[in-house]
Design goal:
Pfam families: GerE, Response_reg. By secondary structure, this protein is of the alpha/beta class. It is 52% helix and 13% strand. It has helices at 14-25, 39-49, 65-75, 90-99, 111-122, 130-141, 157-167, 172-179, 183-197, 202-211, and strands at 5-10, 30-36, 53-56, 80-85, 103-106, 127-128. Helix 7 (157-167) packs across helix 9 (183-197) and helix 8 (172-179) packs across helix 9. The N and C termini lie far apart (48 Å).
Amino acid sequence: MSESVRVMLVDDHPVYRDGLAALLGSLPGVEVAGTAGDGLEAVERARELQPDVVVMDVQMPRLDGIEATRRITADSPHVGVVVLTMAEEDQTLFAAMRAGARGYLLKGANQGEILRAITAVAQGEAIFGPAVARRVAEFFAGTPVPAATDPFPQLTVREREILALVAAGRSNPQIAAELYLSPKTVRNNVSNIFAKLHVADRAEAIIHARTAGLG
């Protein structure tokens, strides 16, 4: 690894992304190699730039951060991913871990926590923010969760979210409004869901989802 840790930042909010890039770029031992505004761009840019660490948001257009993490770590196993997100729920945390993320911080993390996570992950370690680490410890110390907690492991976080709304009877325009997505993004996600579940139409998808307890 070079003396400076080469970092790529991925977030769909330009102001936050550019602010974080300026912050990290000012720190000794960190070089901001590039940025990306969504998951698909992140996969392409990571392949091109080969950074030491990718700092990844979760909820993004076109491709969410969980699936982008899975593709990047499969494509370039030496690239470490630190998820930096507003999402506090356990489902997102463990989905990120399963996808190959080696760090998970909430967006309230301070500069020192972010720098420590980037440095640790660049050295091959796994690191979680204090609040997240506590939840991980509590999870493994608690009652074992049945293995079949995720009935649709082939779906991304965003696709499961949309499937739940489909199962609840929401139309595509309603889903777009509720999740602040474009109608085209919702249509694309719904098509991906149908393909991954091997269903022909919305009615069949709803049956699958409700059988699994969604909606």
